[in-house]
């Protein structure tokens, strides 16, 4: 039968036009677009068929799969029934084994170049890839086939994006992110530990709406979600500027929501939209819950940004405001100059003292 | 965290203890419900069978087992319409290629429709109730407020940046939602579905030893055994005796695992002396089969007192039941009574799935109790969330060793740490999935997954749904290879369950 458009499918499922427009408006908000764009999103979604999507789990912990179950715009139920046709996801699909592999092969064969691949987890390269095999095939082989034939690949979470915790020193299985393993693939990185599900759904809808991938930074991350520094959007920024810092867990400053910089917050070196969209439908995010950001969305954050509870160097109290800003400027400038931002962060971290003079 | 607290002799504050209990408690409740509806139900529930149901009869069925409000004929007709639309669209998505129509599906169409409706409701419910953990932990999954020595979520009734009366109200509201769904949807569904599959009360029992480290600490000592769900070891299904747990009895050998020990692969090591040097000897990928007469797994053979041992909700409920835990005993007896089976039925695939439901119910009942316990402690003026005496590594001894017990939703979890010169010299995590999916050991004892499959009847070797039922009943947290071998040892089919 003729494949119907997303909107037709929603209508058939009893979703009202009004609810549909509400969904489009919230999508516009996540994508940081003016609300007028909701009409454009609606128009686009009305025309499109449900896109075929496959979700691979490689060297992962299923944290990003868990995260997508918590999506709210749309919910996971709406997502898998109404927005996309999720053909393969080991954890939540009904079939197992050969039947499951058939679902995957059907998509790769029948919808070549037309489906979206979502990858969760890193790809281990050492010793021919033996450290992650599914059905006797290595993660690398599977990713080559699935991502190589996809219209585009979304690398969800820090492991698929940059190797994540699986690639932390000494990286015993030589794990890398999808883009590093498959340089020629079209990859959008959506790092975070876990990925924020609203950024996944927003990327999918962006693609359906505008017919193109969102603009990316040098680390292949969409600007709509990773374009701003956590430090610049942080709800505790006024306390940083005022020199009000948490010194000990549970002290008065901690109870009053002061800046977590001195107990190790990496917000000045992290780019992500946590402070604006938060996690679990706006419930919270690390800084709001009293814990430092550890820049989970930055490349090699485990190795490059120092111990979680160590203060970023060279920011001695309230007088260092200019210094922290300088760190940010250096990162932005580096990205514009085409140099990987994480390299500069590393450099500015280790050489900070001299730069500060 | 508990391993380091144990190594350094840290006693956490009362508030941190209670917050950790609440975080673990809602994790049990939410995780178990997801497991039942989204990772296990489709082994028992035929989605396409729901199309044949009469919505009015489904409503009548639902109303006889629960007073949950979503139970009208109109409601079930709408759910049926969704399933119909999905099937007709030709884009079946995650439901494509299931074993639909398999003769091992025994539910009448109305029960299938009711379960599908609750599958969808549970998807919505789980993302709501887990906000309790997201609030206390910053996000879910991967909460980020755990600290060695306590928690990072501050408490202050007079601050808008800390746990205050508003937070307590939020958590109590979510606890009520959690408890309502478990009492009025999950447990009635579990009993209704189980009543059609009582033959599974004698299939899939597996190894006869059960371990629980104990969880929901009732005092602030590190690795306390004073837990609301008690610690204990049950040997050879003997419910008349619960042995105390000794972490030193945990060993791992690598006779059949792809690692190499510096001395002898066949000799079990305690995790403080643990080694994890990879030694892959399997076939070069891509491959069809593994040679199980040699090393064949990335999982070490974890053993307790030398015995292959099951961990998880069944083990916890058995240990609690045999220890005389009042509420667990009441609910276990209620469930056994309703199904008309004796305690021996617990040692089975069905018993494992039922135990998870029983644990969910008793844990959900405790959530408001623990939230009120936190409120009572705040009322006393206790705002302490962290013991910081040992925060600075300069205060640490030159050498220290510790272990940290935890009962994760999937079962016994312990981390062992050796600290030397302010650094981690050895760290071993022995996780629930490792216990249950362990390979054979040097003595040839099979792991719990392996043992549980012995004797499982398979109606159609090409569609081995029976295998999925037993493996999924453990709530495996990893992809696992399942091989069905005929009498001649030829492999018939491979199934990967996740």
Structure description:
The complex is a heterodimer of chains A (357) and B (498). Chain A folds into two domains: 6-226, NADH:ubiquinone oxidoreductase-like, 20kDa subunit (Rossmann fold); 230-357, Cytochrome-c3 Hydrogenase, Chain A, domain 2 (Irregular). Helices cover 43% and strands 9% of the residues of chain A. In chain A, the strands form three sheets. In chain A, strands 2-1-3-7-9 form a five-stranded parallel beta sheet, sandwiched between helices. In chain A, strands 4-8 form a two-stranded antiparallel ribbon. In chain A, helix 3 packs across helix 10 and helix 17 (321-336) runs antiparallel to helix 18. In chain A, a hairpin with a 2-residue loop joins strand 5 and strand 6 (137-138). With 357 residues, chain A is of the alpha/beta class. Chain A starts with 5 loop residues before the first helix and ends with a helix. Chain A is globular. Chain B has 498 residues and is an alpha+beta fold. Chain B has 13 helices and 13 strands. Chain B has helices at residues 2-8, 14-40, 55-65, 73-89, 109-129, 131-137, 165-194, 313-322, 326-339, 349-379, 432-436, 448-453, 465-473, and strands spanning 146-147, 150-151, 210-212, 215-217, 227-229, 232-234, 250-253, 301-304, 399-408, 411-420, 423-430, 480-485, 491-497. In chain B, helix 3 (55-65) crosses helix 5 and helix 10 packs parallel to helix 13 (465-473). Chain B is globular and about 70 Å long. The two termini of chain B are 28 Å apart. Residues 479-498 of chain B have low confidence and may be disordered. Chains A and B meet through helix 4, helix 5, strand 2, helix 6 and strand 5 of A and helix 2, helix 4, helix 5, helix 6 and strand 2 of B.
